[in-house]
Amino acid sequence: MKRDGNLNSFWQDTAPLHLPLSKTIYSKMHFDAVVIGGGITGVTTALMLQLAGKKCLLLEANKIGFGTTAGTSAHLNSVLDTPYSDIIDKCGKEVAKKVAGSALEAIQIIKQFVKKYKIECEFEEVRGYMYATDEQEEKELNNIYQAIGQVGLPTSYTSDIGIPIQFTKAIYFDQQARFNPLKYVQSLLDVYIKNGGRILENESMQNIDDEEGNLKVVGENFTFTASRVVHATHTYTGINKLNFKLGPYRSYVLAVELQNPGDYPEGLIYDMKEPFHYLRKASDDLGDVLIVGGEDHKTGQEENTQYCFKNLEAFVRKHFAVKSIRNTWSSQYYESTDALPYIGALSTENPKEFVATGFSGNGMIFGTLSAKIISDLILTGESPYADIYTPLRNSPIAGFKAFVSENINVVKRLIGDRFKKETMDELAALSPGEGKVVSYEEESLAIYKDDAGKVYALDPVCKHAGCIVQWNNAEKSWDCPCHGARYGIDGAMLNGPTRLPLDRFDLTEMK
Ligand SMILES: Cc1cc2nc3c(=O)[nH]c(=O)nc-3n(C[C@H](O)[C@H](O)[C@H](O)COP(=O)(O)OP(=O)(O)OC[C@H]3O[C@@H](n4cnc5c(N)ncnc54)[C@H](O)[C@@H]3O)c2cc1C
């Protein structure tokens, strides 16, 4: 199966799609709910609504699992990436307690689905560990320890974290879990289809209009109506104030075979670095691997993304005897400005559209929780978590420097413009596999040369808010530094918030 990057994740290799999906376009039909986005959030939401008797359509621009759900590391942790000490500072103790309770509930929802539908996805309840390696980190760890206790999650200090990494202080917390995300999502999808749920893949939502009490959902090849629409696209696609309250980040992951079988951790492990490393074990027919992640940075703001893999590999080799590296991949997440995700109605004027975004590195948990909150809101109008996570709450606007500097006036150019061969030859003096934004007669071009020497030229102006995209040499994509929209070498949309591909320039003359 394909993912929104050039590199294959461990999950892609272990969980091929097994259900033949319908090719019906369903145009002009009416649905109780259209769920846009076929990751863990969309699939779980569509399933919950379908099981409750609603007629649902799950719409996916690519293939189910194409987004971050195939690029995750799949820790199921109630001790979230944002420390509870920060959540208490920003939102208060009572909210932080509810957040902790909601995270535990999400793990239980996954556990119950696994049990009820006998899902084989290597779900296992395990312990989580966090460790410090110097005095400064110890101080921070003590704060986190206190805060975890304050929100009602049991935690203790420990002298054993189960891996051969030296540390000075460590804590553990129970009731965490791990699983294979794609096996899980594909099994939920099977249940959804068996219960009458419909799926439309390889078709993208391009517009939604409120029309005579219903929502008209429009794509290139379809128009259908819905009573409710759920935007489960990881970030809201299109222009919305939420775009200005979310920061897009890339994170890097390796699946590593170790020489010593005793070195694989049973638990979920986190260090205290900035950005921190996260470790867990996973298994397939070939054996165990250590899944290690880290090296996060703002999307489109790292010149050489290959370095991130090099640094991560150096971290692993420093602590473990490595037999082989089976997979390297990176993926995208979105962080909100007040540490909590945005889940619920999109606006007061339009309570028929729902959104689920800003999960940071906890989208297995928050995606599942979104499904519960949004399906409760659609089915009953209420959710005990509605107030905490509402997208309508006051939260700060992100002051991203890059957005201000990059969001310049954009000169619109015509697709199909042709460029003089001689000039382009010069511009295209790139190594095979290299991409670059270059200037051409006072304008800019995003050019990429593939391994066979074919040159692709795109308008580098992001279709979302007009920033200039940057080349990502690890995933071979064009990434926007402002709101995280990403495009393939041919300009195809990989990640929102864009709804459209980049404009292409015709280089047929170049052959
Ligand atoms: C490296 C990394 C490690 C992570 N590790 C963890 C972890 O250990 N634990 C954890 O809980 N979380 C983790 N996360 C976060 C988590 O993986 C994500 O938050 C989660 O997968 C998001 O799921 P989703 O269904 O909301 O979005 P996605 O899986 O991204 O799915 C969105 C889908 O929407 C589709 N789409 C977009 N626009 C349109 C459109 N216009 N029309 C139709 N379809 C559209 C896309 O094609 C895509 O398939 C990690 C994230 C990263 C980057």
TrEMBL record:
MF term (GO), any: 2 iron, 2 sulfur cluster binding
Assigned keywords, A-Z: 2Fe-2S, Disulfide bond, Iron, Iron-sulfur, Metal-binding
Cited Pfam families: DAO, Rieske
Keyword Iron: yes
InterPro entries: FAD-dep_OxRdtase, FAD/NAD-bd_sf, Rieske_2Fe-2S, Rieske_2Fe-2S_sf, Rieske_Fe-S_prot_C
GO CC annotations on file: cytoplasm; membrane
Coiled-coil regions listed: none
Rieske domain span: 422-511
The protein, known as: FAD-dependent oxidoreductase
